[in-house]
Amino acid sequence: xxxxxxxxxxxxxxxxxxxxxxxxxxxxxxxxxxxxxxxxxxxxxxxxxxxxxxxxxxxxxxxxxxxxxxxxxxxxxxxxxxxxxxxxxxxx
Length: 92
Known about the structure:
- The chain is mostly helical.
- It has helices spanning 2-23, 49-78, 84-87.
């Protein structure tokens, strides 16, 4: 009984898809058809110079921040183990 309802839902989905293809919402390859706009078949595969720059910038920035975080962590955990008196601090 459950398999029958699953089959009916699958057939309805296929029929809806075919009706969308026929009405021009999708093309025959399954891509969304944009009427009145620029349509790129197969998707854009080329990256722009700006995208390459931004990707490089963010990767190098992330590596730099990771290194800085490691340095701070090392200073906090293994750095000079001075007491408050040696730092010139006082307890209230």
